[in-house]
Amino acid sequence: MQAQAVRTVAAGVLLPASLLVLWQVAAERGWIDALFFPRPTDIVARTWEHVRDGRIVTDSEITLKRLLLGFVLGAAPGIVLGLAAGTTRFIRALLYPLASALYVVPRIALLPLALVTFSIGDPARVFMVAFGVFFITFFGSLSAAEQVERNHVDTARAFGASYHQVMRSVIVPGASPSIFTSLRVAMGVALIVIISVEFLASNSGLGSFIWRRYQIFDFPSMYSGIVAVTVLGVAINALLLMLERSLLPWRR
Amino acid sequence: MTILVRPRARASWSPHAVEIAGLSVRYPGPGSVLALEGLDLAVAAGSFHAILGPSGCGKSTLLKVLGGLVRATAGEWRIAGGRRPAYVPQGNSCFPWLTAEANVAYGLWVQGRPRRERRAVARALLASLGLQEFAESYPHQLSEGMRQRVAIARAFAVNAPLLIMDEPLSALDFQTKIQVQGELLRLWSDRQATVLYVTHDIDEALTLADRVSVLSGRPGRLLGTIEVPFPRPRSYRDVRNQPGYPDAFRQLFELLEERSA
After folding, report:
1. For a designed S-S bond to A134, which of A74, A192, B95, B238 qualifies (C-beta 3.0 to 4.6 A apart)?
2. CB distance B69–A156 less than 8 Å?
């Protein structure tokens, strides 16, 4: 069993490790332009420098704060309204057409509107994240609520459960696995949105860090920023998985 | 053994556990389906009454009407005392996110009963079904037979005078089915409840029931009811050794054949 676990981890590490080795060799031998694609060892060294001088840590904290705030402000109403629309015909009829129309608007196209509405500052960046997260969790929760097994809803109703009892004891737990999946998808989108917004409208955060290093052709530092974003994304995804496992013990 | 006359709607209801008169159910929509038509049925209080019929004859619809899940299009029905029946739906109805104990206690939770009471009732029922060791297990950790025991225990937990069961044992293997049938009869006998039990299995109906009503194919109408005279306590094997068994089986078989006539 343990040997199998080691083999699984090794298989997962093999491809990225091979690509890094290939990249290192290609940069050293001059097969690729080392200005744009510096050696991975140089990127690691530069990342460590930025960690020590604190800049990348500070920018990561700023991005993380905007990301989490926007995520919560988008996901909470997204889940609540999605579940309500998935279980109540009137609420579905009320929300679905508008949500469907707004869902297809490219997130970044709303940035000027957000800047005008909230002025340049964190509220506009947080709004952009929340807007992106809301629709994914809304449609994810709506579909999850609709797919809860009819037999379970009928059983609850036959025992005399009220609408709120059915929601609490059947719809929410039954829809939870799909809601968690939509949360993980939404987190990926939230990360893309916040980095894009920081590229265009921020002097702080990892997006701004990456963009400004790109503008002065400091590519090793630019890659450091990308590494930090990747670490952030992987860590948050792992946390969501841990949360899912602890909240849904029956799925193990 | 007698073929009973179909009960008709009456001005004053008699003390049956369930009385149904002229019940019709049409599912609306583009593919509108008439599931039940003019169904008359009386279920004696304290009896185990089986409903037998082919697939799609409206047996499940009948239980859903009694359970408040489907509205009747026409006709009357009444449950003595007016209390909500306890329902065991078809298929796997255990909530996967609740432990066996919480599943059994579900109806009591709906009623707002205190945690201590819910726990005590659920533990006692699980113990009576030999599942005390699995109280904290989730349904996916239980066998199919154990899950159906939990669903049956959940229905008995609310102590309803009427239990309605929709083919609860149809997915079980033969040996498990026989075992759970015995446990079901023991619980029914201890609680002195009325059970309305839907099945498509003649043997099961004759093993469990005091009376067996046969419905026609869609739309479901009552073709007849027979009394099962075998003594209790019964078991699957005892029933097959009864001298009246072949005759009872033949009567039910002929009634079922009548649906296609």
Report:
1. A74
2. no
The reply to whether residue B89 touches residue A158, judged by beta carbons under 8 angstroms, is yes
| Closest CB to A151 among B68, B84, B91 | B91
Write the pLDDT tens digit of every residue in B206-225. Answer: 999 999 999 988 888 889 99
How many angstroms separate the CA of residue B84 from the nearest CA in chain A?
8
CA nearest neighbour of A84 among A72, A71, A96: A96
CB proximity A167 to B under 8 Å = no
Q: Containing domain of residue B51, as a range?
A: 10-85+160-258
Confidence of residue B14 (pLDDT cuts 50, 70, 90): low
- The 3-state DSSP class for residue B38 equals strand
**Residue B216 is assigned to a structural domain of this protein:** yes
Note whether A161 contacts B89, CB cutoff 8 Å. no
| Residue ending a domain, choose from B159, B194, B212 | B159
Number of domains in chain A: 1
What count of Cα atoms within 13 Å lies in the side-chain half-sphere of residue A46? 18
State the CATH number of the domain containing residue A154: 1.10.3720.10
Residues of B with CB under 8 A from a CB of A: 64, 67-69, 84-87, 89-93, 95-98, 106-107, 109-111, 138-140, 158
Asked if B149 and B230 sit in the same domain, the reply is no
Of A236, A234, A208, A235, the closest CA to residue A221 belongs to: A208
Q: B141 in a domain, yes or no? A: yes
A165 vs B: CB within 8 A: yes
Please name which of B23, B60, B17 lies closest in space to residue B38, comparing C-alpha atoms: B23
Residue B203 in this model has a pLDDT that exceeds 70? yes
The number of distinct structural domains making up chain B is 2
Q: What is the pLDDT of residue A170?
A: 97
Dist. CA B41–CA B170, nearest whole Å: 24
* ipTM here: 0.86
pLDDT in tens, A1-60: 678 888 888 888 999 899 999 999 999 999 999 889 999 999 999 999 999 999 999 999
Is the domain of B196 the same as that of B239?
yes
Separation of alpha carbons B79 and A159, rounded Å: 15
Give how far B68 is from chain A: nearest CA, Å.
6
Nearest CA in chain B to A248: B97
Q: Provide the mean pLDDT of chain A.
A: 93
Q: Are strands B194-199 and B211-215 parallel, antiparallel or unpaired?
A: unpaired
Contacts of A148 in chain B (CB under 8 A): none
Q: What digits encode the pLDDT tens for the residues A119-160? A: 777 999 999 999 999 999 999 999 999 999 999 999 999 999
pLDDT at residue B7, rounded to an integer: 40
Q: What is the CATH number of the domain that holds B30?
A: 3.40.50.300
Helix (H/G/I), strand (E/B), else coil: B5: coil
